[in-house]
Design brief:
Layout (H helix, E strand, L loop, with lengths): L1 H19 L4 H10 L14 H14 L3 H15 L7 H65 L1 H64 L2 H18 L3
Helix pairs in contact: 1-4, 2-3
């Protein structure tokens, strides 16, 4: 009990010294004026951000050493009131906390980098899926616009198909006329050949009949006179 009273007396003296060491209002104001304005950036919440926010708030209100004095006064208070008793378990807790904090400092950055890379990979996959989805929707919109254009050109397409059908019918009609004309020409040529054949046969028959009649009409005396006349003509034609 006496040791506790001595410890409380020492702690109380330290608290009074800390109270006397508190900076005055002008000094605090001067320190606050000397603190450079910090630029606020939108960063993700990190471990210990709440403590840093409280510390920055205390720095703005009390100066650079205000939060340290507050922590020292609070520690002195809990020690003087025996809220926190220094014994083996307390030292073990401090050592464990220090060890855990050291492990946190060593492991937090690699783990954070790994988690960042993993989250970036997930984000990249989602972005790839989003881009593919956008491309698919864009192609769908283009196809829909093409279908709409075809729908608007439906009248022209129907008119073109009607004209094509009319041209096909006209071509078939002309082909049939050509076939008919060709068949008629063949029949007329055949008829002309038959007529020419009959005429040639008739002419040959008439020529044969005339030759036969002429041969029959020639007598031996007439033949002899004809031969004699031919000889005289040849002699007359010969040079003297």
């Amino acid at each position: 009990m006496i040791s506790r009273l001595r410890l409380a007396t020492r702690i109380g003296g330290a608290a009074r010294l800390l109270a006397h060491a508190k900076p005055s209002l002008p000094a605090t104001t001067r320190l606050m004026c000397q603190v450079p304005a910090q630029q606020t950036e939108d960063k993700p919440q990190e471990f210990g951000q709440f403590y840093r926010d409280i510390s920055s708030l205390l720095k703005e209100k009390t100066g650079e050493t205000g939060h340290k004095l507050l922590a020292g006064g609070f520690l002195t208070y809990i020690l003087s009131k025996e809220i926190l008793i220094l014994h083996d378990e307390t030292l073990l807790a401090v050592v464990m906390f220090g060890t855990m904090y050291w492990v946190y400092l060593k492991v937090s950055q690699p783990v954070a980098d790994f988690l960042d890379s993993y989250s970036q990979g997930i984000l990249a996959r989602f972005n790839g899926y989003k881009e593919k989805r956008i491309e698919m929707l864009t192609s769908t919109i283009e196809e829909a616009s093409q279908v709409e254009y075809l729908h608007s050109a439906r009248t022209d397409i129907v008119e073109i198909m009607r004209e094509n059908n009319a041209m096909s019918l006209e071509l078939k009609y002309r082909n049939r006329l050509h076939e008919v004309a060709r068949e008629v020409t063949k029949r007329l040529d055949y008829q002309a050949e038959i007529e020419a054949f009959h005429q040639r046969n008739a002419q040959a028959h008439i020529v044969d009949w005339v030759e036969k009649e002429v041969v029959k009409s020639i007598s031996p005396q007439l033949e002899k006179e004809s031969v004699s006349q031919c000889i005289r003509d040849l002699k007359a034609m010969a040079p003297a």
